[in-house]
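Q: I'm building a small set of examples for a reading group on sequence design. Run inverse folding on the following structure and report the sequence directly after it, with nothing in between.
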């Protein structure tokens, strides 16, 4: 059987069809991630001129020529839908005459490997911004087995991908159930200020029981993360303790993506965080479950509320007093627990889904290696 070696320029070509007639709108704009996924754009499309955006049909590829660390943002349109991308990205496809040599799905497996990212970044050039040009992509080489062998390994990948998508669909259904439950409470129950149920935590690390390994920050994704601050020469004595079931949040909301950084410590460990944060806990657990409160903090409505009620000039802040007047429905503790159980099941399955996605990515180099070995 053997392998055939090609330059990518022999197999692929750019596409330049634009949205000149404005057939596609803001809801059709997509972007790509460094994990090789196509996602709805995160950029604001308000008043954006879309006529110059590139049209991407099913079976075509897109990539961002600006490198991000050690990875390239790239995606493959494996759907039946056509979408558009910003003109400063690049769209391409398999050449019609090369479709008997390579399957687009097989080419995506080739791109979806750490080895390819490393080579692409090595071929990138620039000072403040490194660019992986179309010419650099075109000059890369690829070894191809026969179409039948390619199809065999693509089928393996597609079977695993389908399993992951079915699991993700069930995950979405579970989230809808949880959201519907919360929305029903919003409509039917009176809303009560949470200030009657929470209290600040002001214990600090004066004894230095906790070290730099226990320092955490809070992300806008509502999670505790490893601190990004330079801790060299910083005294940890004033750092606040975040005990299990406690919350911590950053009061500054400006320049924060319209979100407030707040997180719930759902572990059995005690963290420490900067004294500029506010730490608090539920003081009446017999009336309100901390995880139930977390669910409300994780909703976009709370982000909007916190931003609207933040005050300041150079920096807008959302104080603890502001937090205390937030109103939410507080049903019977048994109903709270039911909602928490559904939410926890969703979080657990979400983590499993992320592992499935990572396994899909991890298997790409194995499939490429296996196909090449079979053809050799």
């Amino acid at each position: 059987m053997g392998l055939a070696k090609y330059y990518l320029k022999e197999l692929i070509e750019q596409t330049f069809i634009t949205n000149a007639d404005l057939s596609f709108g803001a809801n059709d704009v997509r972007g790509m991630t460094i994990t090789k996924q196509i996602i709805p754009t995160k950029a604001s499309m308000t008043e954006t001129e879309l006529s110059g955006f590139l049209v991407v049909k099913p079976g075509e590829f897109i990539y961002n020529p600006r490198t991000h660390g050690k990875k390239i943002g790239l995606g493959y349109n494996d759907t039946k839908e056509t979408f558009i991308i910003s003109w400063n990205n690049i769209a391409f496809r398999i050449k019609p005459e090369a479709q008997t040599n390579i399957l687009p799905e097989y080419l995506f497996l080739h791109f979806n490997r750490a080895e390819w990212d490393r080579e692409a970044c090595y071929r990138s050039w620039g000072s403040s911004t490194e660019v992986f040009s179309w010419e650099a992509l075109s000059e890369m080489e690829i070894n191809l087995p026969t179409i039948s062998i390619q199809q065999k390994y693509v089928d393996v990948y597609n079977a695993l991908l389908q399993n992951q998508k079915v699991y993700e669909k069930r995950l979405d259904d579970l989230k809808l159930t949880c959201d519907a439950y919360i929305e029903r409470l919003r409509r039917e129950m009176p809303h009560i200020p949470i200030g009657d149920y929470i209290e600040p935590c002001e214990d600090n690390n004066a004894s230095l029981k906790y070290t730099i390994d226990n320092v955490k920050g809070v992300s806008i994704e509502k999670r505790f993360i490893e601190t990004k601050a330079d801790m060299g020469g910083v005294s940890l004595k004033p750092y606040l303790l975040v005990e299990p079931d406690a919350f911590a949040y950053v009061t500054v909301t400006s320049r924060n993506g319209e979100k407030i950084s707040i997180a719930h410590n759902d572990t059995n460990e005690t963290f420490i965080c900067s004294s500029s944060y506010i730490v608090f806990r539920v003081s009446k657990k017999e009336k309100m479950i901390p995880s139930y409160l977390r669910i409300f903090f994780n909703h976009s409505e709370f982000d909007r509320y916190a931003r609207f009620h933040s005050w300041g000039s150079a920096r807008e802040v959302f104080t603890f007093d502001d937090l205390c007047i937030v109103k939410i429905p507080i049903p019977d503790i048994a109903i709270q627990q039911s909602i928490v159980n559904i939410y926890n099941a969703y979080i657990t399955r979400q983590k499993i889904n992320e592992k499935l996605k990572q396994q899909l990515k991890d298997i790409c180099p194995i499939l490429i290696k296996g196909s090449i070995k079979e053809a050799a």
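Helices lie at 104-111, 114-122, 134-138, 147-188, 290-297, 300-308, 320-324, 333-375.
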